[in-house]
Amino acid sequence: MAARIPEHIIDEINSRVRLVDIVGETVQLKRQGNRYLGLCPFHQEKTPSFTVDPERQLFYCFGCQAGGNLFGYVQKRENVNFVEAVKILAEQAGIPLPDQRGHVDEGRLHKRQQLFDLIEAAKDFFSYQLKNHPQGKYARQYLIKRQLAEDTIASFAVGYAPAGWRNLSEHLIKAGYSPDLIVEAGLAVKSQDSEDIFDVFRERIILPILDQRKRTIGFGGRLLYDGQPKYLNSPQTILFDKSKTFYGLDKLNRYQQLPYIIIFEGYFDLISAWQGGIHNGLASLGTALSFDQSRMLKRFTDRVVLCYDADQAGERATQRSMQLLRQVGLKVDIAMMPPGQDPDDFIRNHGGQAFLEQVIEPALPMYGYFMHVLQKKHNLQSIEGKSAFVREYATLLAESDSPVEIDGYVRELAGLLDITENAIYREIQKEQRVYRRQVQKKEGTSAPIDEIKGSNIDYTAEGLNKAQEIVIYLALHDTSYGSKLTDDLKFEHFDHRYQVLLEKLWPFWQGNQSIQMDKISNLFDHAELSLLAEIILKNEDSIGDPDKALYDCIEHLKVNNYKNELKKLVSLFEQVNEQGDLNAATDVLKQIQELQRKLGRQR
């Protein structure tokens, strides 16, 4: 396929795919006027500064300054180039793409689709081996021992990878897939000594991992016998990144808001819960959550219940995960498993309803959990132990923005330690000052969106960048403003970063043509689109009288240009004067005086 995407393809994708839906796959958006707001998917923040304009198909973050259109968003989220972003969106919209000769070849699959097909073929292979391979009976016995019903096994497409180095690879090669593609899919590795490839998954129960659109993207494998590693995930590929997905994601309704989601540690914890009637769980594919996973959860819920194993590794994972979840604005509770049991054990022994009643419903809020952990850590019979407990707990509680929450835990802690509430409050207030300084330092560059929107700008006193942006913004929205811009200003009135935009916009304004962003987006590269999105979304609600704004900003740019020219002429005058060139000095002096008169008129 040619690198140049036909304009009609871009237009068709823009008409069929809504940016707000693509963003909404991983970001919880809330409507505010004619825009949607949410937490930025590209940097960590607590206050929403990410905005989506559904009409123009543009996004912009006031915190990290990421911005662009539908294609730019997919480029940044998936870390792909423009052509790959078009392929992803075209596939989602069901739009066939042309080949290098410009012909549409619906049978010609691009790499991404080939990988999806290959991994689906591997899933079918593993499923067949579980049912039909001689070794499959041992895998079936293992699943029966774990009390998994046939319909559960089928629902999760559980399979088996037999012992042997090339069972899957040979099957896929016979099916027409190349060894390189099998390796790229994360299903095989190349030999260091030859061109041979060897299967990644061998003698393991296979658990397919599906994305939100129910496409298989990778696998988890559990050893059937003793050995290490007990669990093995697919390596990272262009389809699979374990830090950006969950096991069981395909079971959730992508458009449904849930009261809460339970996060499990293991595959079989999730499967047992699902079999027990608990259909609001996910497994994290790792010991602790990642930031991307935490952010993804905001799409489905406002509350998460962490349910990890009751061992040291589970406790560490709980503490790391809860901090990330709080950072993205989720309420976090912690389910306390009985010692020596994991969720799978408990559900198999007592059932799903008992699990909900005895483990999930009594889940501790985050600060209640910390109190539980610190009680085990410190000697509460000594003054030193109590003091250390209070200091550590105050550091944690200082992050709460709820006076009611703080008051409740202070009373509980005072009763537990038999000390005064005032002593605890003093420690908390000290830690709150430290915490606020840290937050201000960390978020100091992020401008609150309401502050930007509500500002009443004095255009003549604004910086040069602001004046340039407002002129371009107004010209984009009104052809008469575009004509005035081209009549009154020249390229040299603008900085280089804006000139690259103007080179492509100028002909529209000179021809008195209206500009539709979704129709001209293919004229710009990703960086240019990001700048355009910034100009449009940052200035939309901050301009009062547009006529006055345009006049003031044009005058501002003219004055700035005159001042720059004046500096150059003064420098030139000094140079020719030193050289004794009287005629040249006189000519330059006349130009200086003319510029000074112009400056006087502008002011």
Structural commentary:
There is one protein chain. Helix content is 53%, strand content 10%. With 603 residues, it is of the alpha+beta class. The protein folds into 5 domains: 87 residues, Zinc finger, CHC2-typedomain (DNA Primase, Chain A, Alpha-Beta Complex); 130 residues, DNA primase DNAg catalytic core, N-terminal domain (Alpha-Beta Complex), CATH 3.90.980; 110 residues, 3-Layer(aba) Sandwich (Dna Topoisomerase Vi A Subunit, Chain: A, domain 2), CATH 3.40.1360; 75 residues, no CATH class; 149 residues, DNAb Helicase, Chain A. The chain contains 26 helices and 16 strands. About 4% of the residues have low confidence.
Features:
single chain, 603 residues, alpha+beta, DNA Primase, Chain A, DNA primase DNAg catalytic core, N-terminal domain, Dna Topoisomerase Vi A Subunit, Chain: A, domain 2, 5 domains, five-stranded antiparallel β-sheet, 26 helices, 16 strands, 53% helix
Specify the biggest β-sheet: 5 strands, antiparallel
Quick one: how many beta strands?
A: 16
Strand content: 5-15%
Q: Detail the poorly predicted runs.
A: 103-109, 443-461
**Structure classification:** alpha+beta
Number of helices: 26
Radius of gyration: 31 Å
> Would you tell me which CATH topology of the largest domain applies?
DNAb Helicase, Chain A
User: Which bin fits the share of residues in helices?
Assistant: 40-55%
Please describe the topology of this protein:
Elements: H1 7-16, H2 19-24, E1 30-32, E2 35-38, E3 50-53, E4 58-61, E5 67-69, H3 70-78, H4 82-93, H5 111-132, H6 136-145, H7 150-155, E6 159-161, H8 167-174, H9 179-184, E7 188-190, E8 197-199, E9 204-210, E10 216-223, E11 231-233, E12 261-264, H10 267-275, E13 281-283, H11 291-297, E14 303-307, H12 312-327, E15 331-334, H13 343-350, H14 352-360, E16 364-365, H15 366-377, H16 383-397, H17 403-417, H18 421-443, H19 449-454, H20 464-477, H21 479-488, H22 496-510, H23 517-520, H24 526-539, H25 546-578, H26 582-602
Parallel strand pairs: 12-13, 12-14, 14-15
Antiparallel strand pairs: 1-2, 2-3, 3-4, 4-5, 6-9, 7-8, 9-10, 10-11, 15-16
